[in-house]
Amino acid sequence: MRILIVEDDPVLADGLTRSLRQSEFAVDCARDGEEADLILTAQNYDLVILDLGLPKLDGFDVLKRLRRRAAAVPVLVLTARDALSDRVKGLDLGADDYLTKPFDLPELEARVRALIRRGQSGGSSFLTHGPLVLDTSGRRATLHGAPLELSARELGVLEVLLLRSGRVVSKEQLAEQLYGWDEEVGPNAIEVYVHRLRKKIEAAGVAIRTIRGLGYLLEKNT
Amino acid sequence: MTAILEERPAEAERGTLRYQLLTSLLAPIVFLTLISAVVTYYYAFNFATLAYDYSLFDSALDISRQTRLRDGRVQVDLPSAALDMLESDTHDNVFYMVNDAKGEFVAGHRGLPLPTEETLPGKPVYYDGTYRGFPIRLAALATKVRDPAEAGVLVLVGETLNKRRTLANEVLLGMLLPEFLLITLIGVLVWFGIERGLRPLATLQSEIGSRSHRDLSPLSEQNAPGEVRALIRAMNELLARLSFALSAQQRFIADAAHQLRTPLAGIKTQAELALRQQKIDDVQHTLTQLNTATSQTTHLINQLLSLARAEPDAGRAQAMQKLDLDELARETTKEWVPQALTREIDLGFDGVAGAVIEADALFLREMLGNLLDNAILYAQAGCRVTVRVAVDAACVRLSVEDNGPGIPPDERERVFERFHRVLGSGAEGCGLGLAIVREIAEGHGAEVKLTAGANGAGTLVTVTFPRAA
Fold first, then answer.
1. Which structural domain, as residue segments, surrounds residue B300?
2. Whether B252 and B382 share a structural domain
3. Strands (E), chain A
């Protein structure tokens, strides 16, 4: 996997390059916007990490030119500018993700992995969480390899929780995902499904936590 | 002292006070003068007409005295001297005509226009007419022949209008000339009057222009006329506000530099130490410290920026809009749950519908974020933190309550001060969180209160907003 880092600060560039190389990526570095633009016309990459405040050619312009060439390479924008307008502009111009400096290295690495995965298969159809594996296209789940008996609704709830693993999902969000517009949703229906789901997966150490007043959360494994 | 106002292009000249005052004064005067000229001419001409009409009557009377009845026919004996006099008017041409009672021509210039009005005997009738293409004024006199005084006769005398016009023109000129002189005099006086009157503005201009950008001291009101004084006062108020904002900014920069020095010193020291260390375990330990210090400095810088932006003089205009505080608080709290969980804190929400306020969403999220950051930081593992939104008739209340160690009563006001950290708590915060909360609350017209939580334990921070319609 090849990654291009476009960053003019030498210390940061060095840190990023070395850490990504440790994760077995092939890493190239560009020091200004013009160099980046040139390299991107000549070489293909699996991911571009792009700083916005660049000499010679602004980060936004590099991005614009890249997208104009119909290049679909994922771009992670790194910047010191944290205004909402810059964020929106970046995403509108074709960036895939946005991280403000300074950032936590593990967070950067996680996002890099996610973007490369996205770029590769266009989204996996298998969601994994410890011993639990959910096949979203086949509508099947297994626990420790053994098939898990789940109703369609229970599967739906599990899928949403897995997609947003580690984050809170409200009952309304769950209901939205499970029911059509004209279906009547009883107020306790979601609670029932979560309760049943818990009974089936709790023993294997997959925990669904209730967050007071907000909804549910699939706890990340440590 | 000459006016300092520089040369202006024609267009800008039109916008000046001087031009406006001049035009607003002179334009009506000129207009009125023109009207009065027209009226004067009209009256002058009428009076001239009246004056010269009488002499026409005189001539008609003279001619009528020369009429005789001979052989049944009316005859006029005009001595040649009289005729000469009639026809020797140097200004106008004079015409006369005598008709008998039956209307038959007797003597004079044929074809003089007859009066349209009825002529009473002995009373002259004056009227206008045309003769040989010339406009003329006529007098018609119906009277009896002199000798014998039985037959009737009509005498007409007419003349061109030159004398009358000349008289009218002379009257007009005599009236207009002084008026134009007056207008010119007014114009000149106004010009210089304005020049003098605007001099204080020129003085003000040079005083302001000669100041350095750093000099924000008030301008002097002395010797300034009343209207200019009001302007000076307004300027001084603006200068005071600028001065305040400037010193706030300078204070902030000084604070920031001061606060950053210590953590940066820590970072440098740890780095230098790591360079010296040999054992990998020691280096690891040092680098961990270094990482922590860097995170803290980052946090400090971000908080300083937040505070600067939240200050009212910061220049960032708040984008106030009607929003549902319950919805915003709910979303924000959801985002903080993962972080709370890593510290084993039970974060929950308790909201209500209809919590509509006028607020800037970005600032509100910032504010709630700081409250949650505080609660999570200072509470311990196993504690509960609850975000609540409540509504009553007049206000909407946002509160964050925790059942952690709480804040001692004598510190409850001090925690809002910048860089204040509660002693004995973990050294992780930078002491700006509540200062930021207060600034944002004040910017929204809201009140912040810090009290103990339920059962006197823990901490409860309540922000009370006025309810939007």
1. 226-310
2. no
3. 2-6, 26-30, 47-51, 75-79, 97-100, 126-129, 132-135, 140-143, 146-148, 168-169, 208-211, 215-218
